Amino acid sequence: MAAPSGAASCEDFAEFQELLRVMRTIDDRIVHELNTTIPTASFVGKVDPGQTCKELYQSLMDAHTNRERIIKNCISQTSAVVKTLKEEREKAHEDAALLKQLRKEQTKLKLMQSELNVEEVVNDRSWKVLSHLTVMMFCPSRQS
Protein backbone atom coordinates (compact mmCIF):
# COMPACT_ATOMS: atom_id res chain seq x y z
CA MET A 1 0.00 0.00 0.00
CA ALA A 2 1.72 3.14 -1.16
CA ALA A 3 1.48 6.35 0.80
CA PRO A 4 2.08 9.84 -0.46
CA SER A 5 5.70 10.77 -0.01
CA GLY A 6 5.75 14.21 -1.60
CA ALA A 7 6.63 17.40 0.14
CA ALA A 8 4.18 18.44 2.80
CA SER A 9 2.74 21.90 3.00
CA CYS A 10 3.52 23.09 6.49
CA GLU A 11 1.73 26.42 6.20
CA ASP A 12 -1.81 25.05 6.49
CA PHE A 13 -2.19 22.82 9.55
CA ALA A 14 -5.42 21.25 8.26
CA GLU A 15 -3.63 20.22 5.05
CA PHE A 16 -0.74 18.87 7.12
CA GLN A 17 -3.14 16.78 9.22
CA GLU A 18 -4.93 15.49 6.14
CA LEU A 19 -1.65 14.36 4.61
CA LEU A 20 -0.77 12.48 7.81
CA ARG A 21 -4.24 10.93 7.92
CA VAL A 22 -3.82 9.60 4.38
CA MET A 23 -0.29 8.41 5.11
CA ARG A 24 -1.52 6.55 8.22
CA THR A 25 -3.90 4.42 6.17
CA ILE A 26 -1.46 1.51 6.18
CA ASP A 27 -1.41 1.58 9.99
CA ASP A 28 -5.19 1.90 10.21
CA ARG A 29 -5.60 -1.11 7.94
CA ILE A 30 -2.79 -3.30 9.32
CA VAL A 31 -5.10 -6.19 10.24
CA HIS A 32 -6.65 -6.11 6.77
CA GLU A 33 -3.19 -5.96 5.21
CA LEU A 34 -2.11 -9.00 7.20
CA ASN A 35 -5.27 -10.87 6.30
CA THR A 36 -4.64 -10.26 2.61
CA THR A 37 -0.92 -11.01 2.94
CA ILE A 38 -1.24 -14.44 4.55
CA PRO A 39 -2.47 -16.96 1.98
CA THR A 40 -5.41 -19.21 2.63
CA ALA A 41 -4.90 -22.98 2.43
CA SER A 42 -5.81 -23.02 -1.27
CA PHE A 43 -3.14 -20.40 -2.13
CA VAL A 44 -0.31 -21.65 0.11
CA GLY A 45 1.71 -23.06 -2.80
CA LYS A 46 1.21 -19.95 -4.97
CA VAL A 47 2.27 -17.24 -2.50
CA ASP A 48 5.35 -17.01 -0.31
CA PRO A 49 4.01 -15.73 3.04
CA GLY A 50 7.51 -14.95 4.27
CA GLN A 51 8.20 -12.70 1.29
CA THR A 52 4.82 -10.98 1.46
CA CYS A 53 5.24 -10.36 5.18
CA LYS A 54 8.70 -8.97 4.54
CA GLU A 55 7.23 -6.61 1.93
CA LEU A 56 4.50 -5.51 4.35
CA TYR A 57 7.10 -4.93 7.04
CA GLN A 58 9.18 -2.81 4.63
CA SER A 59 6.11 -0.81 3.58
CA LEU A 60 5.31 -0.11 7.22
CA MET A 61 8.91 0.93 7.92
CA ASP A 62 8.90 3.25 4.89
CA ALA A 63 5.58 4.80 5.91
CA HIS A 64 6.79 5.44 9.46
CA THR A 65 10.06 6.93 8.23
CA ASN A 66 8.33 9.20 5.72
CA ARG A 67 5.77 10.47 8.21
CA GLU A 68 8.40 11.18 10.83
CA ARG A 69 10.50 13.03 8.26
CA ILE A 70 7.52 15.15 7.19
CA ILE A 71 6.50 15.96 10.77
CA LYS A 72 10.03 16.93 11.80
CA ASN A 73 10.48 19.00 8.65
CA CYS A 74 7.27 20.93 9.34
CA ILE A 75 8.27 21.43 12.97
CA SER A 76 11.60 22.82 11.80
CA GLN A 77 9.97 25.16 9.26
CA THR A 78 7.36 26.39 11.72
CA SER A 79 9.99 26.88 14.44
CA ALA A 80 11.93 29.11 12.05
CA VAL A 81 8.79 31.16 11.35
CA VAL A 82 8.12 31.50 15.11
CA LYS A 83 11.72 32.60 15.70
CA THR A 84 11.47 35.23 12.96
CA LEU A 85 8.16 36.52 14.28
CA LYS A 86 9.58 36.75 17.81
CA GLU A 87 12.50 38.80 16.49
CA GLU A 88 10.10 41.10 14.66
CA ARG A 89 7.97 41.35 17.79
CA GLU A 90 11.00 42.54 19.76
CA LYS A 91 11.27 45.48 17.35
CA ALA A 92 7.55 46.27 17.15
CA HIS A 93 5.97 45.76 20.57
CA GLU A 94 2.73 47.50 19.66
CA ASP A 95 1.95 45.56 16.47
CA ALA A 96 -1.24 43.63 17.29
CA ALA A 97 -1.35 41.86 13.93
CA LEU A 98 2.19 40.61 14.43
CA LEU A 99 1.33 39.34 17.90
CA LYS A 100 -1.72 37.56 16.50
CA GLN A 101 0.38 35.91 13.78
CA LEU A 102 3.01 34.88 16.34
CA ARG A 103 0.38 33.26 18.57
CA LYS A 104 -1.13 31.46 15.57
CA GLU A 105 2.27 30.06 14.54
CA GLN A 106 3.11 29.06 18.13
CA THR A 107 -0.17 27.16 18.38
CA LYS A 108 0.49 25.45 15.05
CA LEU A 109 3.99 24.51 16.25
CA LYS A 110 2.60 22.93 19.43
CA LEU A 111 0.04 20.97 17.40
CA MET A 112 2.75 19.72 15.05
CA GLN A 113 4.91 18.70 17.99
CA SER A 114 1.97 16.76 19.42
CA GLU A 115 1.80 14.85 16.12
CA LEU A 116 5.13 13.27 17.05
CA ASN A 117 3.41 11.77 20.11
CA VAL A 118 0.49 10.60 17.98
CA GLU A 119 2.98 9.08 15.54
CA GLU A 120 4.65 7.14 18.34
CA VAL A 121 1.32 5.69 19.48
CA VAL A 122 0.26 4.78 15.92
CA ASN A 123 3.60 3.13 15.19
CA ASP A 124 3.64 1.16 18.45
CA ARG A 125 0.12 -0.12 17.83
CA SER A 126 1.00 -1.24 14.30
CA TRP A 127 4.14 -3.07 15.41
CA LYS A 128 2.26 -4.81 18.22
CA VAL A 129 -0.51 -5.93 15.86
CA LEU A 130 1.99 -7.02 13.23
CA SER A 131 4.11 -8.94 15.74
CA HIS A 132 1.15 -10.58 17.45
CA LEU A 133 -0.68 -11.63 14.32
CA THR A 134 2.38 -12.74 12.41
CA VAL A 135 3.52 -14.92 15.28
CA MET A 136 0.05 -16.43 15.45
CA MET A 137 0.12 -17.12 11.72
CA PHE A 138 3.74 -18.30 11.63
CA CYS A 139 4.73 -15.45 9.41
CA PRO A 140 8.31 -14.26 9.92
CA SER A 141 8.13 -10.62 10.99
CA ARG A 142 10.93 -8.10 11.33
CA GLN A 143 13.47 -10.26 9.57
CA SER A 144 15.85 -9.09 6.89
From TrEMBL:
Protein name, UniProt field: Protein MIX23
Pfam families: MIX23 (PF09774)
Organism: Chaetorhynchus papuensis (pygmy drongo)
Coiled-coil blocks: 75-105
Keywords: Coiled coil
Higher taxonomy: Eukaryota, Metazoa, Chordata, Craniata, Vertebrata
GO cellular component, one term: mitochondrial intermembrane space
Similarity comment text for this entry: Belongs to the MIX23 family.
